[in-house]
Structures are given as C-alpha cells and as structure tokens.
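pasting for ref. prot 1 ->
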Amino acid sequence: MSDLLERLRGRGWRLTAQRRVVAEVLDGDHVHYTADEVHAKAAHLLPEISRATVYNTLGELVSLGEVLEVSTDGRAKRYDPNAHHAHQHLVCSRCGTIRDVHPSGDPLAELPQEERFGFQVAAVEVTYRGICPNCTSAAG
C-alpha cells in the first residue's frame, strides 16, 4: 500500500474505488501530475471515473493537507503527494518537469531578521530552475 493510501486510511478517510484510484495514481517519488494527467491515468485503471470526481478528490486531498498544490510559472497546477516531508522543487524551464529536492540547511534561517519586516514567517518555498537532462540532450 502506498504512503498516501496508508495516511488516508489512518485518517479514516472513506476510500471509494474512485478515491483509491486517484491516490494510487499519485503514489511514487517525484510525482507532480496535473489534474488532467491524474484523470487520464485514473481512467486507464477505472474507465468510468469522471473528470469532476478527480478534481473533487484532488481538492479534498489538498484541503486535508495530504497533497500539495504546486504552481510554477503560470503553468497548470500540479499535485504533489510528498506533503509530509520538507522539500523544495527543481523545475525544468523548458518542459516543466518537476523534481523534489532536499537541500541542506534551513532556508528560513537564511532570511535575516531585518528582511522579515515584522512578519512571523511560517513557511518557505524555494524553487530551483534549470534545464533537465532530457531537454539538454534534445537541444544538442
């Protein structure tokens, strides 16, 4: 059983066939699918699943804090099941591929007190950008 499915079971979230398929699609490392990609993959496993059900399920998972909504450069939102492990994102500027990264150090500690302007900072989002190996080799 996937980490996401285990977490959802632990919360007592009712796992209908549709919800289970969405959670299964989101299982894995470096998963950052758009809602349409989740729907396409879910429909492959459960052909009768509707787009509305996928969107509603993703919304519920985000509300529960079990899935992160990731937005980069105005592209379609992507859904990241790695919600309980601190990480940042590495994004390809050409194709939009996203990878989870775990840099050392505390990015919050790197913001000097005088640059916080009195804010009580609770979270930091850092996005690293570059060109992925696939796009680099395609250009060559």
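and prot 2 ->
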Amino acid sequence: MSDMGSRNLRRRPDKAALGIAAVLAAVAIVIAWSTSLSSAVAGYSPVGPKTFPYIIAGGLFILSVFTAIEAMRGHFPQREPQNFPPMLWVLGGLVAQMLTMKTIGFSIATGFLFAATARAFGKGQMWITFPVGVVFALLVWLMFAKGLQLTLPAGPLERLF
C-alpha cells in the first residue's frame, strides 16, 4: 500500500513545469506571429530572413510540448525550496541599475548591481564590493566607449575620461 501511495505522489502534474511549458509555448507563438507580420524581401532562395525565426519558434513549441508531457507524468526531480532574499537582492540591484544609469552613469549604477549581487551570494561587504564593481564597470565602459566607439550612458565618473 505504501508503494502505491508514493507512486501516486510522484505522478502528480508538476505545476511549475506546466507553467514553464505554457511560457515556452507563448514565446513560440509570439515569435511566429511577429515573424509572419514582418515584411521580408522575396528572393530566389527558399531560405530567407523569416526562416530562422520560424525554426526557433518551432523548436520552442516542441520543447513546450515535451515539457508539458513530462510535467503531466511527474518526471521532474524534486526541487529545493526557494530562498527569496538573495533573489530580491539581485532583482533590487538590477532595478537600481536601470533606474539610475542615465543619471549617475554606467559605472556607478553597475557598481550597485555588482554589490547587490555579491551580497546575494554572501560574498564580501557592500563597502568593499561596491567600489570593486565600479572599477570593473568603468573598465567595461572604457572598452566599449573608447575602444569600440559604442555609446553607454556616461555619468560624472565617465566624463573624467
């Protein structure tokens, strides 16, 4: 009897995996729909600018079907419980970076993201990781802005260079 009970628990549909399957299917549909609306130049070859988006959409849709099948069978491994504070640190750092990048510049805003991510992983104190992140981000900014001539948001620190 106990073997039957454990087998029934294992065969319950995995709701998280079904959600992932639904998101994969939705992304596939959006890609296919968007590709069908784009105007492509007709050429002599059957392979054109619409070919690969359709292949990607088809692949995502197939993945969504297989994910849904495995979710219904309950074949996904048991997941560990979620630890939300680290995720919130990373999300908060990302939001802070996006909101402040145009005003304080790429390097300082990315320094906040670096420090928040380091805090989420339990590595170092913020007063150490923030300046380290700013230095790394400034090096990235210099490579992109000066080396590759690409534009990244410049703040007071970047204007010194």
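Helices lie at 2-10, 15-37, 51-73, 84-104, 106-120, 126-147.
The radius of gyration is 23 Å.
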